[in-house]
Amino acid sequence: MQLGHARFALAAVPEGSTLTCRIGEKERILPTTGPQPHANAHHWVNAFCLALICRENERLGELARVPVSLLRESGATFDEYICSWAETLQRFWLGQDGVGDHLVAAVDGTGPDSARWAEQDHMSSILYPPIILFYRYLREDREQFNEALVDALRWHEEYWSASDDRAINSDGLVAFGPLAIACLAHDKGFPIEVESECLPKALLTFAWRGEIDT
Q1: What is the pTM for the complete model shown?
Q2: Which of 52, 103, 151, 160 is most enclosed, with most CB atoms within 10 A?
Q3: Is 5 in contact with 23 (CB distance < 8 Å)?
Q4: pLDDT given for residue 117 in this prediction
């Protein structure tokens, strides 16, 4: 979470300056970078999800103010939906208009006729589920939220167990996207009825509150 936030804090400032970022247990003075290939929309969504899981409201605010134009300047190649998804989350967190329009664009962009770069099984099993979960969250449809969460975790487990290479990949241990949206829902009072090793309860319920100085 710290590294994800620092990546975009440094990229948002032109090269030639420094920022103090906390990494681990130390305050580190790091050089700013300006736009970089690693400061892209995909990594931004991951950083935002990690900050949601860690309930890092100050970092979430800073990430939400990273211009989508900066993410595009990274030069990284991704399907267009990811920028719409990033802007959806930014506008939601900042309380701005247009959340629904960008969410619709993100959903539309995940379809097989729109996605050009992501493999379809990765799109449908990993990238799409957090978006539809967020839609259920916005509608405050608690029953359908839980149904969508069950689907998201099942697809996650099926995807990461589909081959021996995937099965040993640590990326499959936790369903970070669904977990992040479930944390939002939990904190708003949604009853989270599903249990899974991919949805660690201690992270979902913020059981470690105050134990770590971030």
Answers
A1: 0.95
A2: 52
A3: no
A4: 83
Please state at what angle helix 129-139 crosses helix 99-109, rounded to 10 degrees. 150
Query: pLDDT tens digit string along 149-197?
Result: 999 999 999 999 999 999 999 999 999 999 999 999 999 999 999 999 9
- Going by C-alpha positions, the residue among 59, 60, 66 that lies closest to residue 13 is 66
Quickly tell me which residue has 């499959």 as its tokens: 172
- Average pLDDT for residues 202-210, to the nearest whole number? 91
| H, E, C per residue of 157-181 | HHHHCCCHHHHCCHHHCCCHHHHHH
Query: b/e map of 97-114 (b: 16 or more CB within 10 Å)?
Result: eebeebbebbbebbeeee
Query: Positive or negative CA dihedral for 171, 51, 152, 43?
Result: negative
Amino acid letter for position 124: S
